[in-house]
Amino acid sequence: MAKNELQFKTETEEAEWWPKNQDLIAERFEQARASGKLGNGTVARVAGERAKQAGASPTITIRLAEDDLARARV
After folding, report:
1. Contact call for residues 64 and 72 (beta carbons, < 8 A)
2. Could you tell me if 55 and 49 are in contact, meaning their C-beta atoms sit under 8 angstroms apart?
3. How many helices (H) and strands (E) does the chain have?
4. For every residue of 5-54, which 3-state class applies, written as one string?
């Protein structure tokens, strides 16, 4: 499956496609693993690299009601 091979007109169409094609997806993963093309933690690694390149985020202070702060902590 090429990166842009699947084209869906709507999110609903895509959401319906994935469960109907679990066997195809599993087969493609097995093919990728057998050919050594299956990455390990690729998304997390790329996100971490991008975060390092972007540098430090600015610190922002906002006021929140205590109830909202308590809910955010949960």
Report:
1. yes
2. no
3. 4, 0
4. CCCCCCHHHHHHHHHHCHHHHHHHHHHHHHCCCCCCCHHHHHHHHHHHHH
Give tens-digit pLDDT for 35-69.
Answer: 988 777 778 888 888 888 888 888 899 999 999 99
Q: CB of 24 within 8 A of CB of 30?
A: no
More confident: 56 or 31: 31
Residue-level length of the chain: 74
| Distance between CA atoms of residues 44 and 55, nearest Å | 17
CB of 1 closer than 8 Å to CB of 28: yes
